[in-house]
Design a protein that fits this description.
The protein has 155 residues and is an alpha+beta fold. Helices cover 20% and strands 36% of the residues. The protein has a 6-stranded mixed beta sheet with strand order 2-1-6-5-4-3. Strand 4 and strand 5 form a beta hairpin. The chain is globular, with a radius of gyration of 16 Å.
Amino acid sequence: MARHPVPAATLLGSPDDVEAQFYEALQRGDIDKLMAVWADDDEVVCVHPGGGRAIGPVAIRATFEAVFVNGGVPVSPEQVHRLQHMGTAVHHLAERIDVVNPQGRQTAWVLATNVYVKTAQGWRLAAHHASPGAAKAPPVLGADRPGTAPGTTLH
């Protein structure tokens, strides 16, 4: 595990703290704040919607620098489902992306999974995986969710 210098970050006390800082950095287009939430590990990984895997902090930084060329991303995390055990937390959520273009205000939805690990520096992001977007909010399916039905399973 190689160490990479990252900007000073506050001690992040929970996965929710990391998630809040991650999405704030995305909204502001703040590459240094965004990179500060990642674990200091060569094996961190990020998949952007419809993109390939960026493995390691250098590759992840490069992909986000390209995303931020036109400024921040108007994204908001919603429908967060949390799973936490010992030193690992997994958040699955819907990212709402609101944009204004010549056709007016439009909203796209992306399903994302964020994996957090507890380190000596506090909780840090180890993996972010986002699926291609959709025009409608994704349904929440499950036997424990009244009014929902199983979806089509791809695998």
